């Protein structure tokens, strides 16, 4: 199993971040402390978003094929005592119930943006597989 490397987007409360860090560490994951930076960190595999928006971390995750998940993922994993499959917790049109606004600019996001995490992750993953086969 590959190590899971996490970033958070949309969280300013230290107590919430510290609790997420504790949960991730207990499960064997790693948290990139990017509190001083709003940028995506190369190598991150998961971004937990308070709400889906056009932030640098979300856009970086889209470009790299990282998982973009709702906050429910961390609590569900802790309850299970292990990292769970991510698909159920990936941001999508169905997970819009978590959304309180459109992110940085408080503008509503168009519906198609909610399908971007899955679409981009699959596209990047298939591109990496094609590159890998070409080098064999």
Strand content: 5-15%
Query: What's the count of strands?
Result: 4
Strand line-up of the largest beta sheet? 2-1-3-4
Instruction: Please describe the biggest sheet, giving its number of strands, its sense, and whether it closes into a barrel.
Output: 4 strands, parallel
Question: Please, how many helices?
Answer: 5
Low-confidence stretches: 101-105, 131-136
What is the helical fraction, as a range of percent?
A: 40-55%
Helix/strand order, N-terminal first: EHEEHEHHH
| C-alpha geometry | globular
Cα distance spanning the termini: 23 Å
| Cα Rg | 15 Å
Task: Give the mean pLDDT.
Answer: 82
Helix-strand makeup class: alpha/beta
Draw up the topology in text.
Elements: E1 5-9, H1 14-27, E2 30-31, E3 46-49, H2 56-64, E4 67-69, H3 72-80, H4 111-114, H5 116-134
Parallel strand pairs: 1-2, 1-3, 3-4
What does this structure look like?
This protein has 136 residues and is of the alpha/beta class. Helices cover 40% and strands 10% of the residues. The protein contains five helices and four strands; from the N terminus they run βαββαβααα. A four-stranded parallel β-sheet has the order 2-1-3-4, sandwiched between helices. α2 (56-64) links the parallel β3 (46-49) and β4. It is globular, with a radius of gyration of 15 Å. The chain starts with a strand and ends with a helix.
């Amino acid at each position: 199993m590959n190590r899971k490397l996490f970033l958070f987007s949309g969280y300013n409360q230290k107590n919430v971040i510290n609790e997420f860090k504790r949960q991730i560490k207990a499960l064997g994951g790693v948290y990139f402390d990017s509190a001083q930076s709003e940028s995506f960190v190369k190598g991150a595999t998961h971004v937990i978003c308070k709400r889906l928006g056009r932030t640098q971390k979300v856009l970086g995750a889209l470009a790299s094929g990282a998982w973009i998940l709702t906050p429910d993922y961390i609590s569900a994993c802790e309850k299970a005592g292990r990292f769970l499959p991510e698909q159920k917790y990936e941001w999508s049109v169905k997970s819009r119930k978590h959304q309180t606004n459109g992110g940085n600019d408080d503008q509503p996001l168009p519906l198609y943006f909610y399908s971007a995490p899955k679409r981009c992750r699959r596209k990047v993953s298939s591109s990496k597989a094609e590159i890998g086969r070409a080098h064999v």
